[in-house]
Amino acid sequence: MKFFDKVKDTFNLGGRMGLTDYIDFLKQDEVPKNLMKGVDIYGRKFLTMKIGGIDLNNNKFFKSGQVFFERYSNDHTKIAGADFEGSFISIYGRINQDQLKLIDDLVDGKIIKVKSEHRFNSSDYNVIIANMNYWEKLAARKIQKNFIIARYNPSYNLCKKIINRQYDEYINN
Question: N or C end of the chain: which has fewer CB within 10 A?
Fold first, then answer.
């Protein structure tokens, strides 16, 4: 899992394992970051990933997530996927190279147009996805841009209040 080393934040399972000895019990709200890595009690690496996407047919935003983990501690080539209150790609037995590239690109913060070879968990492939860090940064930039507009454009109440307060302070001093 070359993408494993790119992730900085570590999640500690605290010795917990699922009924099948896989990491299929995690809930998204207990994992504080959108991308986290860890190691289970058997020494197998895992990655938790929260993603968001836009269905281009109806322009609706959706969220999902998935846990990716090594199936065997002595074989780093067999990656499996576990439910993370949903999953966004179907992994049957073994992950394919296109899916590995998809995960690597998502870890790198890229926005991806889903293809059939990704085996996305939908019959519709007119979807773009990115890890939630991408969407959160995009939202923050929009908020910052709109704040600056509202702060310095007198047609907005925020700007009017600031100008009036500054005027009052000027007059009273």
Answer: C
Spatial separation of the C-alpha atoms in residues 10 and 87, rounded to whole Å: 21
Give yes or no: residues 23 and 83 share one domain. Answer: yes
DSSP assignments along 10-53, one per residue: B---TT---TTSSS----GGGS-SSEEEEE-TTS-EEEEEEEEE
The one-letter amino acid code at 163 reads I
> Domain total for the chain?
2
Query: What beta strand segments (E) does 43-135 contain?
Result: 45-55, 60-72, 75-83, 112-113, 127-131
Domain that holds residue 168: 137-172
pLDDT tier, 74 (very low <50, low <70, confident <90, very high otherwise): low
Pairwise CA distance, residues 133 & 117, whole Å: 24
pLDDT tens sequence across 138-161: 999 999 999 999 999 999 999 999
